[in-house]
Amino acid sequence: MKLLSVVIPCYNSQDYMEYCIESLLPGGEDVELLIVNDGSSDNTAKIADKYAIRYPSIVRVVHQKNGGHGEAVNAGIRNASGFYLKVVDSDDWVDVRAYLKIIKILKKFVTEKQTVDMLISNFTYEKEDKKYKKVMKYENVLPVDKIFTWEDIKPFRRGQYLLMHSLIYRTELLKNCGLVLPKHTFYVDNLFVFVPLKHVKTMYYINLEFYRYFIGREDQSVHESVMIKRIDQQIKVNKQMIDDLELENITSPKLRQYLLHQLEIVTVVSSILLIKSGTTENLQKKKELWKYMREKDQELYREIRYGMIGILLNLPGRFGRSISVGGYKISQRFIGFN
To answer: What gap in Å lies between CA 86 and CA 19, rounded to an integer?
Structure first.
């Protein structure tokens, strides 16, 4: 059994997937690289097969009809045989020194039979044309280099949150928690983070910049103009997070606090994009999203709607909307995400 399964979803990734794969090969026989070719029409399949032939004991390839990023991740989880699982998008890469340290830590968990559900590390925004690289770190909120539980964490800052890039899950937990990402839907990485968290009991944080998250291409799914065009998919994910939360079933106050924090961030992004689009149709969709939350869970709605951010997002009129957008632009400058 492999120590770590790394799922690499690929769709028409011929121009950058090799850099990603090469950064992961130093894991050697402790890892399996699961390259999921999601119905690509370029040379992605050939490149993937080339690596499988060259490294038959490390690289496995799954070819499937196009189902979107979520279905590629689903396929990776289904086929994973490692104790732990990490998703690395094909246009991103990892820092090799941090990678080898993480493998050493995971090996210790397994050999000493320590059940750790989730390992957390830092990630860097590799933003195109930016000299300053923003690093998402957690040393102020998580114990470092020790196993801990939700009761040991501190409150996260407004712009600080867990992304897919910062997480490695125990594979069995992912397979048993009921996570199935929707097909043909962008932004499902939010669900990949959010849904399993209720099942996580033990965690470990290593304060290293492991994942390199490339951001800034004009055609990238997280580019603001692209997100506005795909706003219905963002809303779909946002609503699924609302459906999944079920506050009454969460007994840990600190887990509850964090899940509310994560949902608030995603709702902020949805609301700001709907406001910035400027269309009457999208402003109505914003109202409907908040109405959906209110009708689904009154307590959840009160927690988010009447906090500082919820009030800022729902200021009335054109002037109120301009204040909301202005506040978001300031946060972009200091937080560093699109």
So the answer is: 17
Q: Could you read off the pLDDT of 57-108 as tens digits, one per residue?
A: 999 999 999 999 999 999 999 999 999 999 999 999 999 999 999 999 999 9
* Among candidate residues 133, 149, 151, the one with its CA nearest the CA of residue 205: 149
Q: For residue 31, what is the DSSP state?
A: E
Helices (H), 177-252: 189-197, 224-229, 231-245
Secondary structure E strands in 153-256: 167-170, 203-215
Q: How far apart are CA 301 and CA 286, in angstroms?
A: 14
Q: Token match 């997480």: residue?
A: 167
The enclosing H or E element of 9 equals strand 4-10
Cα–Cα dist 317/267, whole Å: 19
296 by Cβ neighbours in 10 Å (0-12 / 13-18 / 19+) ranks as: middle
pTM: 0.92
